[in-house]
Specification:
With 506 residues, the protein is of the alpha/beta class. 39% of the residues lie in helices and 23% in strands. The strands form three sheets. Strands 6-3-7-8-9-10-11-15-14-13-12 form an eleven-stranded mixed beta sheet, sandwiched between helices. A four-stranded mixed beta sheet has the order 2-1-5-4. The chain has a three-stranded mixed beta sheet with strand order 16-17-18, sandwiched between helices. Strand 8, helix 13 and strand 9 form a beta-alpha-beta unit. Helix 17 packs across helix 18.
Length: 506
């Protein structure tokens, strides 16, 4: 294994030179990818409809092709799922990454082509390791097993052909190269189990006997597995179960609310945490600097990027920017065109650039996952930073939360109502609420203005709900699993009313 580890580390480091090239020539790389994407799709039904053969540059592209959300592409994707081909992309598409999103009850099915698997998702996975090995030349992650929190998939038969729907993680696991499968745990039969509670139990039993050196997954579901492993082994520290554990690749949700919980369960001073931006639609970013929480925007994965300033959302003719037009410190809705046939697709995430040379970003929230009931424009980035501040001052830990507005009445100003499941509750919830409120004021000037003398917004209302409330809520909705996330902020009360009802009745 040490020799095998050294060979893989050497191969991974060779990729670093290519990464440095797109960091040095970002606009050339993006222009070339746009050309290649348009060329590949020019004879598809979509390409013919929008005249791809005569598109010569980005100006032609943006003037001819509209910005699309999932609903706009859904008729095309439905046809793909019914067996038609050469619609959005020029190669066969038989895999569809199932994504529930965070603001809709309906599942989305994102087409996954061979090119997007190889040139985007798998390339991103290898780059994760390349960057990590480059930053930590003495790493021993290849001397043990890699543990990934995967989902599940189903097989559909259409006209005697097999089509696959499932979590992106399941699709990736099913198609892993042999060398990655050699290093992974548990076996596929366990990793792809459909019933989530049984899978957690079985994964914990199997992996607790292995020498796990690295984990990847969504923080909330990974924590569930870690606690089950500790319960089965009777240990209080994961470092006692996996003494060689050194790395957690995390993504899907903001890590900040979970950081202290991981530190409390993994005491090893050699533990490292690396954030990734890997969605069903593509692999977009990697935290390449250990001391910075920003992520390097990956520019050579078969994705062409565009960015819409948030103030343009909802406009009939929105202004959209190319990479060379963005600024630091502004929130943008991310728009992508990909080698799986997603064209000018607004994925629903908002990002902010922290650097422009090279291009590094932070995820700041969702285009539809915020509270703006009173003009306060509260985004997830504000909420999670404020919760982090309040938790540190009050020595508390949070597992999950959701929030929604209470609208004004004749006698009372409006408010934000929060349902929070604490891992470690604050000793004084009133002080926690006051601290949280003050932190929000310091982070969001619009919120601070609306809170002035409680004329428009009064102090937040925070409910500390019992442990397991959000798990029960997800289970009742059939949403257990790594791809399903608790919606954090909403302008309506659909989610929070259901959560509070469970908290009161169970």
């Amino acid at each position: 294994m040490p020799i095998f580890s050294s060979m893989i580390s050497w191969l991974m480091k060779k990729r670093v030179h290519q990464i440095e090239l797109f960091m040095k020539y970002p606009h050339d790389v993006q222009t070339e990818w746009l050309r290649r994407l348009i060329t590949a799709a020019r004879d598809t039904e979509w390409g013919r409809q929008y005249g791809y053969k005569s598109i010569n540059n980005w100006n032609d592209f943006r003037n001819r092709v509209p910005v699309n959300d999932y609903e706009a592409l859904k008729p095309w994707i439905d046809r793909l799922r019914n067996g038609e081909q050469n619609l959005l992309w020029n190669t066969e598409i038989k895999w569809f990454a199932k994504s529930s999103g965070t603001t809709s009850d309906k599942s989305k099915f994102i087409p996954v082509s061979y090119e997007s698997l190889e040139e985007c998702h798998f390339k991103g996975g290898k780059d994760l390791l390349s960057i990590y090995c480059n930053n930590h030349p003495d790493t021993h992650i290849f001397d043990g097993r890699s543990l990934a929190m995967g989902g599940s998939h189903t097989i559909r038969e259409v006209n005697n052909e097999s089509y696959y729907d499932g979590d992106l993680s399941a699709i990736l696991m099913q198609n892993l190269p042999f060398w990655a499968e050699f290093l992974r745990t548990p076996q596929l039969s366990v990793a792809l189990m459909n019933e989530w509670e049984s899978k957690i139990e079985m994964m914990a039993k199997v992996t607790s006997q292995e020498d796990v050196t690295n984990i990847s997954g969504v923080p909330s579901w990974t924590l569930l597995l870690i606690k089950k492993v500790l319960e089965i082994t009777g240990k209080s520290d994961l470092s006692e179960v996996w003494p060689n554990l050194e790395l957690f690749f995390h993504g899907g949700v903001n890590f900040a609310p979970y950081r202290d919980q991981f530190h409390s369960l993994i005491s090893s001073p050699n533990m490292n945490y690396v954030e990734t931006y890997n969605a069903s639609e593509g692999f977009f970013g990697i935290q390449d600097q250990p001391k910075s929480e920003s992520m390097l925007l990956m520019l050579d994965y078969g994705i062409y990027y565009e960015f819409m300033p948030l103030e343009e959302l909802g406009s009939d003719n929105p202004k959209v920017l190319s990479l060379d037009q963005v600024e630091t410190g502004r929130n943008y809705a991310l728009i992508i065109s990909t080698n799986a046939g997603l064209w000018r697709y607004m994925i629903g995430d908002t990002v902010m650039f922290t650097e422009l040379f090279p291009y590094r970003i932070r995820i700041t929230g969702r285009t539809k996952n915020f509270i703006n009931a009173f003009g306060e424009e509260l985004i997830i980035d504000n909420a999670e930073n404020a919760l982090t501040i309040a938790c540190r001052k009050c020595h508390a830990l949070i597992s999950e939360y959701t929030a929604a507005p209470i609208y004004s009445s004749d006698h009372l100003a409006g408010a934000h109502e929060w349902a929070i499941e604490f891992e470690t509750p604050p000793q004084n919830l009133e002080y926690f609420t006051e601290t949280f409120d003050n932190a929000l004021k310091s982070l969001n000037s619009d919120y601070e203005a609306k809170r002035y003398h409680s004329m428009i917004l009064r102090e937040p209302i925070i409910h500390s709900v019992r442990t397991g409330t959000f798990y029960t809520w997800l289970k009742q909705r059939g949403k257990l699993g790594g791809q399903h996330k608790v919606p954090r902020l909403s302008n309506d009360r659909k989610y929070i009313d259901d959560v509070l009802h469970i908290a009161k009745t169970d």
